[in-house]
Amino acid sequence: MLQQTQVDTVIPYYERFIRAFPSVRTLARASLQDVLGQWEGLGYYARARNLHKAAGIVLREHKGKVPGEERAFRGLPGVGEYTASAVMSIAFGHPLPVVDGNVARVLSRLFCLDGSLKREVHRLAGRVLATGDPGTWNQAMMELGATVCLPRTPLCSACPVSGLCGAYKNGKTGAYPVASVQRRPRHEVAAVGLIHDRRGRILISRRPEKGLLGGLWEFPGGKVQQRESPSEAVVREVREELGIDIRVDRELCRVKHAYSHFRVTLHAFDCVRLRGRPRALGCVEWRWIRSSELKLFPFPRANRKILELLETANRSE
Length: 317
Fold this sequence. Notes:
alpha+beta, Endonuclease III, domain 1, Endonuclease Iii, domain 2, Nucleoside Triphosphate Pyrophosphohydrolase, 41% helix
């Protein structure tokens, strides 16, 4: 959960997740939908899918015990260098350096590194590692960066290693780490339909498990193409995804949402099915559900924003 996510954000999700799945066995035997439901809102859903797969492997191949051997642990789904080093050093005492953004910032200032050279940062992290107690050392380095060696206003007077810091000695803490050129995230426009049948139910569909937001449920729709209005896009997308024709009655709301590499403006429309029976053409499955059941399904955050806006509007009427 700490991959690409701040500790304060993670804590309530972690506590809720552990209550739902207190052991490897309960996690492995849970359905992916239940796991995604507990993860909903935390983002980067591939982490949840990989964690679920890893729990299954640990249960089947390691008798429910997380392997303490580095090669076996690295073979689990979703385990990269950061996760492997953190778990192996903190839980099992392996002398492996952990390098996250905080540690990289500490090292870049200590050694006045030119540029964000990952290989050099990892080399230095291994060089300074206290091999006698690597877990405590790694946690201390991460904590130093998170609470003292801050990005914009480092608390150098409170830093236990300021006397060793090249950037501090030269009065150039603001120059490190050397900033990389940030690309402006692309912007996309998408449209979804809250499609009702004669019984007042709403149509939802589930995304394929691979890819962005894999395995989550959503309101049918997709990206708006060039020279196409959002209302035209939702009619086309629903036909391609579910094989039905719909009528757009009105636009309900618009929401903005940011992902790691792009931003989206999402138009939500109130729609009615005209013809056809839904088929899973561009999705894994579909369901007609009542509005009271929406909370039972894991949805992307952007879809939840739509529901929150509509609930707020209904309460104010």
